[in-house]
Design a protein that fits this description.
The protein contains 6 helices and 8 strands; from the N terminus they run ββααβαββαβββαα. By secondary structure, the protein is of the alpha+beta class. It folds into 3 domains: 58 residues, no CATH class; 87 residues, Alpha-Beta Plaits (2-Layer Sandwich); 65 residues, no CATH class. A hairpin with a 5-residue loop joins β1 and β2. The longest helix is centred in the last third of the chain and has 12 residues.
Protein backbone atom coordinates (compact mmCIF):
# COMPACT_ATOMS: atom_id res chain seq x y z
CA UNK A 1 0.00 0.00 0.00
CA UNK A 2 1.60 3.28 -1.13
CA UNK A 3 2.03 6.34 1.10
CA UNK A 4 3.32 9.86 0.77
CA UNK A 5 6.56 10.98 2.36
CA UNK A 6 6.04 12.28 5.88
CA UNK A 7 3.06 10.06 6.70
CA UNK A 8 3.14 7.13 9.12
CA UNK A 9 3.62 3.75 7.47
CA UNK A 10 0.55 1.50 7.19
CA UNK A 11 0.23 -1.55 9.43
CA UNK A 12 2.04 -4.64 8.24
CA UNK A 13 0.11 -6.55 5.56
CA UNK A 14 -2.63 -3.88 5.40
CA UNK A 15 -4.80 -4.44 2.35
CA UNK A 16 -8.28 -4.08 0.91
CA UNK A 17 -10.28 -7.30 0.97
CA UNK A 18 -13.50 -6.22 -0.72
CA UNK A 19 -15.88 -3.47 -1.76
CA UNK A 20 -19.64 -3.11 -1.45
CA UNK A 21 -21.78 -0.78 -3.56
CA UNK A 22 -24.29 0.93 -1.27
CA UNK A 23 -27.89 1.78 -2.16
CA UNK A 24 -26.86 5.45 -2.33
CA UNK A 25 -24.26 4.65 -4.99
CA UNK A 26 -21.29 5.11 -2.67
CA UNK A 27 -18.70 2.36 -2.27
CA UNK A 28 -17.83 0.82 1.09
CA UNK A 29 -14.23 -0.42 1.14
CA UNK A 30 -13.35 -3.28 3.48
CA UNK A 31 -9.91 -3.61 5.10
CA UNK A 32 -8.37 -6.77 6.47
CA UNK A 33 -7.83 -5.34 9.98
CA UNK A 34 -9.22 -2.59 12.20
CA UNK A 35 -5.76 -1.00 12.39
CA UNK A 36 -5.62 -0.84 8.59
CA UNK A 37 -8.99 0.93 8.50
CA UNK A 38 -7.81 3.43 11.14
CA UNK A 39 -4.68 4.15 9.07
CA UNK A 40 -6.76 4.87 5.98
CA UNK A 41 -9.02 7.23 7.94
CA UNK A 42 -6.01 9.05 9.40
CA UNK A 43 -4.54 9.51 5.91
CA UNK A 44 -7.75 9.90 3.92
CA UNK A 45 -6.61 13.12 2.21
CA UNK A 46 -3.57 11.45 0.68
CA UNK A 47 -5.63 8.37 -0.17
CA UNK A 48 -8.20 10.40 -2.13
CA UNK A 49 -5.43 12.30 -3.93
CA UNK A 50 -3.99 9.00 -5.15
CA UNK A 51 -7.42 7.86 -6.35
CA UNK A 52 -7.87 11.05 -8.38
CA UNK A 53 -11.10 12.14 -10.02
CA UNK A 54 -13.92 13.50 -7.89
CA UNK A 55 -13.82 10.90 -5.12
CA UNK A 56 -14.93 12.09 -1.68
CA UNK A 57 -14.73 10.42 1.71
CA UNK A 58 -17.90 9.87 3.71
CA UNK A 59 -17.16 9.06 7.30
CA UNK A 60 -18.81 5.95 8.68
CA UNK A 61 -20.52 6.65 11.96
CA UNK A 62 -21.92 4.34 14.62
CA UNK A 63 -25.40 5.70 15.29
CA UNK A 64 -27.15 5.35 18.62
CA UNK A 65 -30.80 6.29 19.18
CA UNK A 66 -30.90 8.01 22.57
CA UNK A 67 -34.18 8.51 24.43
CA UNK A 68 -35.46 11.37 26.61
CA UNK A 69 -32.75 13.90 25.76
CA UNK A 70 -33.41 17.41 27.16
CA UNK A 71 -34.64 19.64 24.34
CA UNK A 72 -32.22 22.34 25.50
CA UNK A 73 -29.48 20.27 23.86
CA UNK A 74 -28.59 21.20 20.27
CA UNK A 75 -27.27 18.03 18.58
CA UNK A 76 -26.23 19.95 15.47
CA UNK A 77 -23.98 22.31 17.45
CA UNK A 78 -20.32 21.31 17.46
CA UNK A 79 -19.84 23.12 20.75
CA UNK A 80 -22.70 21.18 22.36
CA UNK A 81 -21.28 17.89 21.07
CA UNK A 82 -17.80 18.73 22.41
CA UNK A 83 -19.36 19.37 25.82
CA UNK A 84 -20.86 15.87 25.70
CA UNK A 85 -17.39 14.50 24.89
CA UNK A 86 -15.91 16.34 27.86
CA UNK A 87 -18.69 15.47 30.33
CA UNK A 88 -18.41 11.77 29.51
CA UNK A 89 -14.63 11.57 29.14
CA UNK A 90 -14.92 10.63 25.45
CA UNK A 91 -12.01 11.28 23.09
CA UNK A 92 -12.23 14.79 21.66
CA UNK A 93 -14.50 14.70 18.60
CA UNK A 94 -15.93 11.25 19.42
CA UNK A 95 -19.49 12.54 18.99
CA UNK A 96 -19.21 13.53 15.34
CA UNK A 97 -22.83 14.24 14.44
CA UNK A 98 -26.26 14.47 15.97
CA UNK A 99 -29.87 15.13 15.04
CA UNK A 100 -33.31 14.94 16.54
CA UNK A 101 -35.26 11.84 15.56
CA UNK A 102 -38.29 13.99 14.72
CA UNK A 103 -38.39 17.63 13.59
CA UNK A 104 -38.43 20.04 16.59
CA UNK A 105 -41.35 21.95 15.05
CA UNK A 106 -43.56 18.91 15.64
CA UNK A 107 -43.15 19.09 19.43
CA UNK A 108 -45.89 20.32 21.72
CA UNK A 109 -45.27 23.52 23.64
CA UNK A 110 -44.63 21.83 27.01
CA UNK A 111 -42.31 19.10 25.73
CA UNK A 112 -39.06 18.90 27.69
CA UNK A 113 -37.39 15.77 26.29
CA UNK A 114 -37.15 14.09 22.89
CA UNK A 115 -35.32 11.26 21.15
CA UNK A 116 -32.09 11.95 19.28
CA UNK A 117 -29.66 10.10 17.01
CA UNK A 118 -26.00 10.46 17.97
CA UNK A 119 -23.27 9.45 15.52
CA UNK A 120 -19.92 8.35 16.99
CA UNK A 121 -16.62 7.92 15.18
CA UNK A 122 -15.67 4.76 17.07
CA UNK A 123 -17.74 1.65 17.77
CA UNK A 124 -16.19 1.35 21.23
CA UNK A 125 -17.59 4.73 22.29
CA UNK A 126 -21.02 3.97 20.79
CA UNK A 127 -21.07 0.65 22.67
CA UNK A 128 -20.19 2.45 25.89
CA UNK A 129 -23.23 4.70 25.43
CA UNK A 130 -25.46 1.67 24.76
CA UNK A 131 -24.11 -0.11 27.84
CA UNK A 132 -23.71 2.71 30.38
CA UNK A 133 -25.75 5.64 29.06
CA UNK A 134 -24.49 9.17 28.41
CA UNK A 135 -24.76 12.48 30.27
CA UNK A 136 -26.36 15.25 28.20
CA UNK A 137 -27.28 18.62 29.70
CA UNK A 138 -26.89 17.10 33.17
CA UNK A 139 -29.28 14.21 32.50
CA UNK A 140 -28.16 10.59 32.19
CA UNK A 141 -29.95 9.11 29.20
CA UNK A 142 -29.84 5.72 27.53
CA UNK A 143 -30.12 4.40 24.02
CA UNK A 144 -29.69 1.50 21.64
CA UNK A 145 -28.13 0.80 18.29
CA UNK A 146 -29.95 2.54 15.45
CA UNK A 147 -30.94 -0.13 12.95
CA UNK A 148 -31.46 0.44 9.26
CA UNK A 149 -35.18 0.64 8.54
CA UNK A 150 -37.09 0.41 5.26
CA UNK A 151 -37.52 3.79 3.57
CA UNK A 152 -41.01 5.28 3.39
CA UNK A 153 -41.57 7.67 0.50
CA UNK A 154 -42.88 10.93 1.90
CA UNK A 155 -44.95 11.51 -1.24
CA UNK A 156 -46.74 8.24 -2.04
CA UNK A 157 -46.09 6.64 1.41
CA UNK A 158 -44.90 3.35 -0.15
CA UNK A 159 -42.53 1.45 2.16
CA UNK A 160 -39.37 -0.32 1.02
CA UNK A 161 -39.72 0.59 -2.66
CA UNK A 162 -36.22 2.14 -2.94
CA UNK A 163 -37.33 5.61 -3.90
CA UNK A 164 -37.89 8.88 -2.06
CA UNK A 165 -40.19 11.85 -2.66
CA UNK A 166 -37.83 13.53 -5.15
CA UNK A 167 -37.77 10.42 -7.36
CA UNK A 168 -41.32 9.20 -6.68
CA UNK A 169 -43.15 8.10 -9.85
CA UNK A 170 -46.58 8.88 -8.37
CA UNK A 171 -48.45 11.88 -9.75
CA UNK A 172 -50.32 12.75 -6.54
CA UNK A 173 -49.32 13.11 -2.90
CA UNK A 174 -50.77 10.65 -0.42
CA UNK A 175 -51.41 11.62 3.19
CA UNK A 176 -49.54 9.61 5.85
CA UNK A 177 -52.42 10.14 8.32
CA UNK A 178 -55.65 9.55 6.43
CA UNK A 179 -54.52 8.05 3.10
CA UNK A 180 -56.26 10.68 0.97
CA UNK A 181 -54.72 12.59 -1.96
CA UNK A 182 -53.13 15.56 -0.21
CA UNK A 183 -49.88 16.38 1.57
CA UNK A 184 -49.71 15.14 5.15
CA UNK A 185 -49.01 18.62 6.50
CA UNK A 186 -52.40 19.75 5.14
CA UNK A 187 -54.38 16.92 6.72
CA UNK A 188 -57.36 17.99 8.82
CA UNK A 189 -58.70 14.53 9.63
CA UNK A 190 -59.15 13.83 13.36
CA UNK A 191 -57.28 10.95 14.99
CA UNK A 192 -60.32 8.68 14.83
CA UNK A 193 -60.30 8.94 11.03
CA UNK A 194 -56.72 7.82 10.51
CA UNK A 195 -56.29 5.35 7.65
CA UNK A 196 -53.28 3.64 6.07
CA UNK A 197 -52.89 3.89 2.30
CA UNK A 198 -50.52 0.90 2.20
CA UNK A 199 -52.83 -1.44 4.10
CA UNK A 200 -55.80 -0.26 2.02
CA UNK A 201 -53.92 -1.03 -1.21
CA UNK A 202 -53.08 -4.48 0.17
CA UNK A 203 -56.77 -5.02 1.04
CA UNK A 204 -56.04 -5.26 4.76
CA UNK A 205 -57.56 -3.58 7.78
CA UNK A 206 -56.48 0.00 7.18
CA UNK A 207 -58.53 2.03 9.66
CA UNK A 208 -57.16 3.24 12.99
CA UNK A 209 -53.58 3.90 11.91
CA UNK A 210 -51.73 5.88 9.25
CA UNK A 211 -48.89 4.94 6.92
CA UNK A 212 -46.44 6.67 9.28
CA UNK A 213 -47.50 4.52 12.24
CA UNK A 214 -44.69 2.18 13.38
CA UNK A 215 -47.36 -0.32 14.43
CA UNK A 216 -48.55 -0.61 10.82
CA UNK A 217 -48.50 -4.34 9.90
CA UNK A 218 -46.90 -3.65 6.52
CA UNK A 219 -44.15 -1.53 8.09
CA UNK A 220 -43.51 -4.28 10.66
CA UNK A 221 -43.20 -6.89 7.89
CA UNK A 222 -40.84 -4.73 5.84
CA UNK A 223 -38.77 -3.98 8.95
CA UNK A 224 -38.50 -7.66 9.86
CA UNK A 225 -37.38 -8.46 6.30
CA UNK A 226 -34.71 -5.73 6.46
CA UNK A 227 -33.43 -6.95 9.83
CA UNK A 228 -33.20 -10.54 8.61
CA UNK A 229 -30.99 -9.40 5.75
CA UNK A 230 -28.66 -7.57 8.15
CA UNK A 231 -26.62 -10.11 10.16
CA UNK A 232 -25.45 -7.49 12.66
CA UNK A 233 -29.02 -6.54 13.59
CA UNK A 234 -29.27 -9.42 16.07
CA UNK A 235 -26.46 -8.00 18.20
CA UNK A 236 -27.25 -5.22 20.70
CA UNK A 237 -23.75 -3.75 20.29
CA UNK A 238 -21.63 -2.77 17.32
CA UNK A 239 -19.20 -5.60 16.64
CA UNK A 240 -15.60 -5.01 17.73
CA UNK A 241 -13.09 -7.69 16.77
CA UNK A 242 -11.10 -7.64 20.01
CA UNK A 243 -14.12 -7.30 22.33
CA UNK A 244 -15.94 -10.65 22.69
CA UNK A 245 -18.69 -9.01 24.76
CA UNK A 246 -20.00 -7.39 21.54
CA UNK A 247 -20.29 -10.65 19.58
Amino acid sequence: MCRKEGTAPPPADARFVGATIQRSGSILLHMNTADAAKWIKANVGNFLAEMGGTSVYKQRLYNVKVQYVPVSFDPESQGARRLVDDDNNFPRGALAKGRWLKPPQQRHSQQRVAHAVLGFEEATVANRVIRDGVFIEGARVFGNKLLTEPIRCMKCQAIGQNHIASTCPAEEDVCARCGEAHRTIRCKAPDNERACANCKAAKRLHLGHGAADRACPIFEEKLQYALERNPEAKYPYFLVADDPSTW
